[in-house]
Amino acid sequence: MNVDIQLNFTKIKEKDKRMEITLTILGLIFVLIGVVLIYDARKITKSRFSFQDINEGTKYLKIFGFILTILGLGIMYYYLPSVFETIKNIK
Fold it and tell me: How many domains does the chain have?
């Protein structure tokens, strides 16, 4: 009975590690998309949207990119140290 509980606890830890790695990669993708939105906001606005005021669309895309970047950095800040520990313990 005691061994079964320990095995289940080990499986839960492995799932948590995979979730932490997945969320860290998701945070990295958010940062990447946010930086691209900030950098190429004018080009994206000209090619994707059809309204007249390009400056207004550029402003909103840059704000959205900034928020997305901060969200991704927050996720990475929270999960990245435990992911580094997991990678260190693999060897």
Answer: 1
pLDDT tens track, the chain, 91 positions: 555 555 554 555 667 878 888 888 999 999 999 999 999 999 988 888 877 788 888 999 999 999 999 999 898 888 888 777 777 777 6
Q: How far apart are CA 14 and CA 71, in angstroms?
A: 25
Distance CA 47, CA 52 (A): 12
Look at residues 80, 56, 75 and name the one whose alpha carbon lies nearest to residue 64. Answer: 56
61 within domain boundaries: yes
In this prediction the pTM is 0.75
For residue 9, tell me if it sits in a domain.
no
**Structural domain boundaries enclosing 65:** 16-90
User: Is 1 within the bounds of a domain?
Assistant: no
